[in-house]
Amino acid sequence: MNPWDPNIYTVTPAAKILARCVATGTMTQEELDAAPQESEVFSSSLLEAEQRNRIKHDLDQTNLDLELLKLQKDGADVTHSHYLSQRFASLQQFTSHLQEVLREQTVLRERLTKPLCQQNLPIQADLHRYVVELMGMVVEFIQDLDVKIKMVQTIPTTEDSLSNLNNAMTQVLSQVTEVENLYKQVLKRRGQPPQ
Fold it and tell me: Does the pTM exceed 0.70?
């Protein structure tokens, strides 16, 4: 097998351009043969830049895949069949309840319009006056209890009172010593000996 046989290789567009350059005389076969045959014709910095771009592209693709995985993880509780089946079951239960309410709409309407006094416990007629008085007393007791609870909550604790008393006492003592110092200075200026 002859490696120079043109039937073995397919002709690339670059080879066609080089063949035209040789045919027109722009380039000679010797110049073409003198060109380096190694794959690294370009500078090493250009190859490094291309490699950096390829690594950056791979990193961007990896970050994109990571973001997609995070989104899938965040949405997993919504889209997972287990959770969807639970929600579907609760939705079915709710709709069946609503259908039952719609079926018994007239019965419910009658129950809601029926006065409440028929459902209360019967009280003997001679005790009605006492029940009314008792209800008034209960309302008054609850109001008084609320007022007393608020009063108790506003009363300062003894610890607060003691701390306030200690603070006031230290302030008074500091003012007394300051007044004594001022008194001594006034007596000195007047020329009288301090007592």
Answer: no
